[in-house]
Each structure stands twice: as structure tokens, then as C-alpha cells.
Amino acid sequence: MAKSANQRSSIYEGTDGYWHGWVTVGVKANGKPDRRHRMAKTQAEVTEKVRDLERKRDAGQVSKASRKKMTVGQWAVIWLTEVAPRTASESTIESVYRPRLVNWILPRIGHQKLERLGPEHLDALYLEVARDGLSEKSVLMVHQIIKRMLKMAMRRNLVGRNVADLVDSPSHDDSDFDALEELEAKTILRHSANVRNGARWSVAFALGLRQAEALGMRWKYLDLDAGRVQVWQLKRTRFRHGCDDVAECTKNRHRDVCRAGCDKHARYCPARTGGEWVFRKPKGKKVRWVPIPVELVDQLRTHRAAQAAERLAAGTSWEDWDLVFADQRGRPINPRRDWAEFKAMLASSGIRDARPHDARHTAATLLLEQGVDIRVVQEILGHASLAVTKRYAHVRDKLTRDAAEKMGKALWS
């Protein structure tokens, strides 16, 4: 194959003793053909290289010439500010993505050319952050962030492959959920009957709602006659600094993990903006109806009557948010206060330490142990995929023991 003047692939022997190949893979930003060069010692070798490049071109796996010098750090900024916000919440970006990128990922591979990033770079990264004390779960999260970031880079033809797919996911036992025992849950519910908004914890254990979903329950979406609730969540928008020197503003709030010039801790800024309460669709962006046990329906009716009395006593100071669980003036309950109340209730009940989210794990565990189909459990809890629900499979030991006993009775009774 000789040199080509019509932009087709060409192969020829050069005066330098090597064989050369040229492949047109697209058009550059200036409108000129984007021609890529390959060379080898033999015609057969260069022909194979040319054919391989043609296959990648036809599969859309050749990166654009104008982006060949882009680094991982440069793409991370674009992904974090322009791409991720389309699908991820602000809280996820600011509390999950950004800290791990800034503290763990970019200091180690941010300088690498995006197109030249290889599996060996990720293997070294995971080993290094693990040696630095990052937990297995956090290392896995670092891997997942890189994988998502490269997936979008691949869709934009910035890289020809997602090298995170070529690396084994860091090991992590994600089935180790700290669910409470049935007796512990019952003890907590008995104590919660004597506290204000006690039905909030019945909702947590019986329905498995996330904290933001339970605190975001509204009466207009609660059908007590039908015994069901439509799940939304109540979130607070991110606080932002309203001052000129953000690092100086909250210097007394900085921690060891804060980077130089840290712009966090905006909630403590005297001139802060943001922080508004907003109702949003639950995690997974899917609104779902969850059935309510009859016993809980009765509790919620009693709770509604108690709240009506509070509202009457508050008079004009009551703010009508239509919340099922509100503070003494009808306003949203701060999640930190909710957390503290749960901890206090555990202490007064003599129950081991746990988090409000562990009530959700407990609900999933109890449903599975009672033989509820795993797909039904997925629907109730609002898991995005069945794989998430299957992480609770280890709690089904009770079911397998029961099955063994039934088989024994069937064969030897």
C-alpha cells in the first residue's frame, strides 16, 4: 500500500528503513483531517497496527487530538463542575466526590495525561491510599469515583477505554451491616412511645426510610385510610460563604484534613447564603409508595392529634410546612438534632450504640428474615437495583436454618 492522497489509510516503506502507516481518524478543530501515525520494522507489523487503529476509530475509541494533552486533574474539574451535577446531588458532590478527589485522587494521579492513564497507575493509587490509612470502603469509593469520571470521558471520546474497568475493584465486605436485633428494636419502640415525635422511630424501623425521607414526610402524601405513604426527602441546600476571605472567615473551624485555603465550613460564616430546606425526590430519583402496617397507622393518627394540639397552642408562631415530624413551631427537624435524640434514646433504653440509618438496615433484615421476597424488599426500601438489596443476603442465615429443619422433618419425621 502506497501513500494516499485521499485521506484513506496508507502504508509505505520509508528511507529510514522502517515501515510507516497513516490513518485518518476524524477532523481536527481547525477543520483539517486528523491523521495518526504508526511505524514498525516490518510491513506485517505496521499493517496490524494500522488495522487496529482503524478498528478503534470505527468503534469510537480514538481520543480527540485537541484533548491529547488534557490531564486527569483538568478533566476532574470539568467532570465535577459540569458533568456530575446533572445526575448527582449537591450534597453528594460536596461531601463525597470533591473531598476524595482533592485529598486522595488528584495529589497522586492528577498530573497524569488522561489518555495515558493506565491500570498500573490505579493499582499503585489504591495501594498507596490504603497504606496511608484509608479504609477498605473508602478505597472502593475512590475507585468508583474514578470509574464514573472515566466513563464520561470515554463517552466524550477523550479516552479510548475506561482503565478502571481493567482493574479489580478494591476488596470490601459491604454485607457487614450493623442491624439491631428484633428485641433491641422492640425495646427502642417502647421507649420512643414516651418521647415527642416518637412515631418517627416507628417509621424508621417499620418502613426502613432514610433519615431525609422520614423527616421529609408530609401529611398530604400520607394516606392513613389506605395505609400508605408517598416517599420524598427533605434536604438542605449547601451553605455558601458571603464574605471575601473564606479561609480567614472560619479559620477556627479548620481541621487537619483541611487543605490550604479551605473554603468549607460556610455554615459558620456570618454572611452565609444558602441553607434553604427543599423537598426532593428520594435517592434514585424515583418516588415510591410504601405500605404502612396497621399498628403504625394507629400511631400516626395519635401523633397527628398531638401535633394538632401543639399547633393550636403555638398560635401564629406555627410555620405550616405540612410536616409529619416537625419541631415545636412546625419547622423542619435538623438532622443533627434528630441524630442526637436517637443516641439519647438508645442510652436511656440501655441499647448498644447505633446510628439512625441502622434502623433502615434493621428493617431490611427483619423483612428478609420473615421470608419477604427480596424484590418486594427492594421496592419497599427504594434500592436502585436488586444487587443493593442482595447485600443483606448474609442475614438470611435464620431462613436457611429453618429450611434445614423443615427438610429434616420432611425426611425423618
What do you see in this structure?
By secondary structure, the protein is mainly alpha-helical. Helix 3 packs across helix 4. It contains 15 helices and eight strands.
Tally of DSSP β-strands: 8
The rounded distance between the terminal residues' Cα atoms is 82 Å
Most strands sheet? 3 strands, antiparallel
Q: Average pLDDT value? A: 87
- What do we call the CATH topology of the domain at 85-166? DNA polymerase, domain 1
- CATH architectural grouping of the domain at 85-166: Orthogonal Bundle
**Estimated share of beta-strand residues:** 5-15%
Shape: globular
The helix count comes to 15
Unreliable spans:
1-6
Quick structural gist:
The chain is mainly α and 413 residues long.
Structural key phrases:
413 residues, mainly alpha, 3-stranded antiparallel sheet, 15 helices, globular, disordered N terminus
